[in-house]
């Protein structure tokens, strides 16, 4: 039976499009995305990163993220047009900071456009869990937290560090990170929290995630889920893996993401997603297992 033509390709960024240790998506991967666009396929990232952080990740190549699901579904764009966006007020984040305060070395950040602001917690704990955000983070002059934001945040995260045996800070382990995520989901109404990586969670409007963002794009394009392919590697990709039949895990995916995916390819380090996108752009089906 002939396969439905693929009309939309979306891929997670970190450790999927973007191999570990690199600062930007490799040129060959961006070239593959352009070949897909030339073949009439919408292609872009489905990421926990905020929209305002995408330009440097794609080396200024805005065509690669004109269509995207950002901030885990809180921001959705189609051909540069905003389809939806959730914002978080200081009041909405107040309960988040209270729950986070129950966990040593935890804190909250909120983004004003591309600039993260330290809402609660310690900057060194953030540095241990997400160095790039810590480097750009706004604090008080003495380096302490700013408190609840007086702006409508486009993105928010909760971080959790831990001390190692030698006293050095590192991201909290999976068990403690999942315990914090569970406490947040149980203790904060109107918001959802996921587990993308140790020591870090994304804040989302309740019921919004990568899957609902992708489905919103599919509705705008007038296509079915069988005309979509998604790539990912971690816990915040599970919703789109469940919603989209042609879900693809890279070889370096977490066990739960690999188990949830329908198809499997090589590792991010070998730009395996680029190879798959090139095949799809050529009208070929690259997945066998």
Automatic annotation (TrEMBL):
Pfam families for this protein: Hydrolase_3
Membrane-traversing stretches: none
MF-aspect GO terms: magnesium ion binding; phosphatase activity
GO annotations of cellular component type: cytosol
InterPro entries assigned to the protein according to its UniProt record, in alphabetical order: HAD-like_sf, HAD_sf
Cited PANTHER family: HAD SUPERFAMILY HYDROLASE-LIKE, TYPE 3 (PTHR10000:SF8), PHOSPHOSERINE PHOSPHATASE (PTHR10000)
Name under which the protein is recorded: HAD family phosphatase
């Amino acid at each position: 039976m002939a396969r439905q033509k693929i009309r939309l390709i979306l891929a997670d960024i970190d450790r999927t499009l973007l191999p570990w240790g690199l600062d930007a998506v490799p040129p060959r991967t961006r070239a593959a995305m352009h070949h897909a666009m030339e073949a009439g396929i919408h292609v872009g990232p489905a990421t926990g990163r905020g929209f305002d952080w995408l330009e440097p990740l794609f080396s200024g190549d805005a065509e690669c993220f004109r269509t995207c699901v950002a901030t885990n579904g809180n921001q959705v764009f189609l051909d540069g047009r905003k389809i939806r966006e959730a914002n978080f007020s200081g009041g909405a984040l107040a309960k988040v900071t209270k729950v986070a305060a129950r966990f040593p070395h935890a804190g909250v950040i909120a983004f004003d456009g591309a600039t993260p602001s330290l809402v609660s917690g310690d900057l060194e704990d953030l540095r241990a869990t997400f160095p790039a955000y810590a480097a750009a983070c706004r604090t008080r002059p003495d380096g302490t937290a700013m408190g609840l934001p007086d702006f409508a945040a486009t993105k928010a995260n909760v971080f959790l560090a831990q001390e190692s045996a030698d006293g050095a800070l590192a991201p909290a382990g999976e068990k403690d990170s999942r315990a914090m995520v569970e406490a947040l989901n149980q203790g904060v109404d109107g918001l959802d929290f996921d587990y993308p990586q140790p020591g870090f969670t994304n804040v989302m409007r309740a019921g919004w995630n990568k899957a609902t963002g992708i489905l919103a794009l599919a509705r705008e394009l007038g296509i079915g889920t069988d005309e979509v392919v998604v790539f990912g590697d971690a816990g915040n990709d599970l919703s789109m893996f469940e919603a989209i039949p042609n879900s693809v895990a890279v070889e370096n995916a977490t066990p739960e993401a690999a188990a949830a995916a329908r198809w499997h390819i090589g590792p991010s380090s070998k730009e395996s997603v680029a190879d798959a996108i090139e095949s799809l752009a050529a009208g070929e089906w690259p997945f066998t297992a």
